[in-house]
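Lab meeting prep.
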Amino acid sequence: MDRELYGELLEWKDSDHRKPLIIRGVRQCGKTYLMQRFGAENYGSVAYLKFEGDESLCRIFDGDLDPKRLVTAISIHLDMDIDRDTLIIFDEIQECERAMTSLKAFCESAPEYHIICAGSLLGLQGTGSFPVGKVTFLDLHPMSFKEFVRASNRRLYEHVVEVGKPDDISKDALRSLYTEYLAVGGMPEAVKTWIETKDMTKVDRILHDISESYRFDFLKHVPDKDIKRVNMIWDSIPSQLAEENRRFFFGHAVKGARSSELEDALQWLIDAGMVHRLPKVERIGIPLSSYRSDNLFKLYMMDVGILRCKAGVTASQIFSGKVDPLFFGGFIENYVMCELAAYGCTGEGYWASGNAAEVDFLIVLDSGIIPIEVKSSDRYRAASLKEYVDRYSPERAVVISMKDYNENDSVTTIPLYSIWMIGKIKG
């Protein structure tokens, strides 16, 4: 399946200032597949090294970290020639700290070797000796809806790209795939299984297994004092998104707990890429980061398929529109958060006034601060956005809903099934 990050890998390969590359992302979001496909299509050979569970491989890095010695040892380990037309892949690099350290030597002494590494964010954050300034990073998210469309119906995808926006030919098909995506989510194995089988029972089994595998990651990487708290915060997100006020409350995750007792556990989830934290913005101004609240925020999961399963919502309930409106509103906000992150426009906060008006997302572009209000249907009143516009007079405001794309003097309406069009505003 094609991923948008592939183009950035091509740019990295051809760069005159190329450094070893680390692809970060949650477990099972497609890092290994992407690296191996990129290597097979762009290099004469691929030297694939997976450190997880391979102690003999890790021992190669126990001695000195001279790149020539390491390349020779890797060549013997894999019984293959390694030259400048070989892509060297270090997978699960967080399992071998010395391999991580060796990237500094490759950057400084042997830049002719092309090295891509991957690791789960949860493991990478615990690495001690990190080659600061000697590596390049790229982040891989679960598949976006745009990538889902491309995998599901390439002709539809190519038509939309050519036209530049949904039209009468593509709109109904995009709406249908959008509903499927809300149920399946963007984990590549789940997407592949759905496209090939249309069997939601198999998809649910995959999503459940992925969710459970994260618990084992918690046991492996999270300090003992925080493991229970991490699990309780993670498990509480679906119910907190179903509240009228979707702000995250530590006391709802762990009864009677104070925020100071759970901050470390929450930070583990954030650093691991498992959740998106969206703080409340106390006032509007550049830089917006100066006015974000440390204590008032919302939490969203990194994938709507995982969220649906953890919430106990079936795919048929999504397809038939039988989900409680209160939860569905939070669910759609979570979807938008994931889409914005995938397209590089991660929300920097949300705005709320004292009279219950609330704008769901604020993004910062060269043109200024852009408020975004999210609606799950095509019938709504954007009263909160109007209050924001009346108060702060932004150059541009956005409504994301089921209405067709439209752009007037100051407000752009973007369909929920084409959030990638936020790029038109970026431009």
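Slide two material, second protein:
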Amino acid sequence: MSLSLNRPDRRDGLRRLFRHPAEMLSSRAIRTQAPPISWLMQQAVEVEGLISLAAGLVDRASLPCARVQALVNEILADPEAGRDALQYGTTPGHHALRDLVRARYCAGTAYDDADQVVVCTGSQQGLELLGEAIYDPGDIVIVEDPTYFVYTGVLESFGCDIRGVASDADGMQVDQLALLLDQLRASGELARLKAIYVVSYHQNPGGWTLSLERRQALMALVHGLPEQVLLIEDAAYYELAFEPDQRPPLMATMDASGDRVASFLTASKPFAPGLKTGFMVVPPRLVAAVVHLKGNHDFGSNNFAHHILARALATGVFDEQVADLRAVYQRKAQILSEALHRELPAGSAQWAESSGGLYLWLQVPGVDTGPDGALFKACLEQRVLYVPGCYAFAPEPGRSKPSDRLRLTYGVASDEELVEGARRFAAALLSLGV
């Protein structure tokens, strides 16, 4: 007998099967909400003709099809190399890749050890694994305001108490961080502090890079804190600096103790997100815990992707792709910024020119940019999408969030779409009488 989903008894049975009463779910599952970007990405797919300046996806035309094809051909042309790549890998990742990551990012520092490198299914998995290793409900985590809002969702799912510290063009304001730390000491809460999280290069969403002076001050503060406090450096946009010679060093390389920083990098933004590979560099005291937890997840990430990336790094193909992408994104950042300057009324919005990464962070004084605000609705009518800035501020009770900020990305839209997207955004703003 065939199954008909249209029969009332079948529909009722399916409703019962897929119902999730609260008593079935763990406390963490109940705390976990869908990230706002999921809905924004869905709109980009479902709304015909919509130009998304919201989702931080990469430039489609520059994806390295020919380069990856050549690498795969080289691997599979060698039967032994091909079998190694197509076999299961190890939980921490392909050793040759871990060693290349060590040499590229940590050589000559206290983190110069391939055993401290764990290869993950994107840096997001690494952040999740580290959270499993160190967070308990009620632990305090300090973040920048604004910050990468997907990570605040991760922190909320762990039941963390998230505190925000104001940031500006040089990154987290370390003097304000020091004041918050003094408040935690005075209130007896410092023992609950587990981590300070910063997006250290071309920040998502702000676009700024944490300055060398503030990196030094931040490192000094961390070393004055109880040893359970970890500095978490999300360096996802490290490779996408338009002027790489001018970027400050990774925080891990500045930690002479080798024990207080966990740095996260990725191959998704600077090479190919479809390979879904990231790297975490952690202190020795955390390696075993992270690897054991990762074993519960997957026994090891995509081994074939690891072999492709190892060959890309070893042969210089990775560097070739990074150089091409820097030029692509520098051009696209300029196109979007120039179009906004051309289309928007003078003084209606402010932003800093991009020095790398994928984002522009706008302030639109006097305009509510939130998802229920008039500008967001007007932009949907104009079929252009941005990320409301309110999502990016720490979900800290009693802490006010600016209501006039928003994030634009120039990553995935074509040159023509960037120009048209700026025109539509300006039209939406003008429709409000700005």
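Talking points for slide two:
Confidence is low (pLDDT under 50) at residues 1-11.
The longest helix spans residues 317-343.
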